Amino acid sequence: MGKKVGFSIILILSFVLAVSAIVRYFILDPVEGNAIIISEGLEMFKMENQLWNIALYIHIITAALPLVIGPFLFIKKWRNRHLQLHRNFGKIYVITILISSIVGIYLSFYAHGGFLAKLGFFGLSLAWLYTTFKAYKYIRNKQQAMHEEWMYRSFAVTFAALTFRVWTALVGYSLDNFTAGYVAAIWLSWVGNLVAVELWIRFKHRKKTKISGNVSV
C-alpha cells in the first residue's frame, strides 16, 4: 500500500511539473511568468538571447518526457506484461536525457548565482548523463539488478527538476539573500536526491541480506 501511494505521489508531481513547464513557456508569456525571478537578477529569463531561448525550450521538452515516463519504468508488473513497450519507453527516456543533459551543460554557463551556481547546474547535467548511461550500459549487458539500481539513481537526478523548485521556495525565498538560497537549492536538489536514493538502495540490500539469512537458517 505504501509503495503504491508513494508511486502515485511521484507520478502526479512529475506530471503536474511537466505540464506546468510546457504551459508556462509554450502557451503563456514566459517573461511575465518569470517576473519575480527576473527581479531577483535572473536576466536570461527576459528571453532576449535567441540561442539561449532555443536551448531552454529544447531542455524543457526533453526534460519533461523522462520526468513523466520515468515512474512507469519501475512498475515490474507492467514491465513484465508489456516488455516491448517498456523497452520503447526506456529508449525515449535515455535519448531525451542525453539531449537534455547536453543542452543543460550549455545552459549551466549562463546560470544565475555566479560560479557555484554554474558548477551546480553543470554537475547536475553530468550526473544525469552519467547515471543514465550506467543504467543503459548494465541493461545492455543483461545485468538487471545493477540496471535497476542505476535507474533509481538516474530518476533521482531527473526528479531534481521538482526538488529544485521546492528547495528554491523553502530556502531561496525564505532568506534575505535570494542568490545564496538559490545556489543552495541547486546543490540540494540533485545531491540531496542522490544521497536519499543511495541510502534507500543500501537499505534494500540490507533487508534482502537479512531475509536471505533468515531463510538459510
What are the defining features of this structure?
single chain; DUF2306_membrane; 217 residues; transmembrane helix; DUF2306 domain-containing protein; mainly alpha; membrane; 83% helix
Question: Can you give a write-up of this model?
Answer:
The protein has helices at residues 2-27, 30-33, 35-39, 50-69, 76-81, 83-108, 114-140, 144-158, 160-172, 178-216. Helix 1 (2-27) packs antiparallel against helix 4, helix 4 (50-69) packs antiparallel against helix 6 and helix 8 packs antiparallel against helix 10. The chain has 10 helices and no strands. Helices cover 83% and strands 0% of the residues. It is globular. It starts with a helix and ends with a helix. The model has no long low-confidence stretch (mean pLDDT 91). The protein has one domain (2-216). The protein has 217 residues and is mainly α. It holds the Pfam family DUF2306. Keywords: Membrane, Transmembrane, Transmembrane helix. InterPro entries: DUF2306_membrane.
